[in-house]
Design goal:
By secondary structure, the protein is mainly alpha-helical. About 55% of the residues lie in helices and about 0% in strands.
């Protein structure tokens, strides 16, 4: 999958701790602004991710993949239809 690369590659201070097999994927995700580091220019590859961190990464991934706009538009249309139906029932 190709992503629009919006950032320069970042070399993290703990780059040596990142597994070789993961370095290319991490670099692509950093350049696409899907993932970032932690304070102090660290990636902290051995740390776990909180649910909030995972949700942020997942949302940025979906946006980068171009899937969010259609879903948001469908939700807006559904909400508008529901609001219109409610107004009609009140009349």
């Amino acid at each position: 999958m190709a992503f629009c690369e919006t950032r320069q590659i970042v070399v993290f201070d703990d780059d040596a701790d990142i597994a070789d097999y993961a370095k290319e994927a991490i670099a692509r995700f950093v350049r696409a602004n899907i993932i970032g580091g932690k304070p102090g220019n660290l990636f902290d590859p051995k740390a776990g991710a909180t649910r909030a961190e995972f949700a942020s990464v997942l949302m940025r991934f979906v946006e980068a993949a171009g899937q969010v706009a259609p879903v948001v538009e469908q939700k807006k249309e559904k909400e508008a239809d529901q609001e219109e139906s409610t107004l009609e029932q009140e009349e």
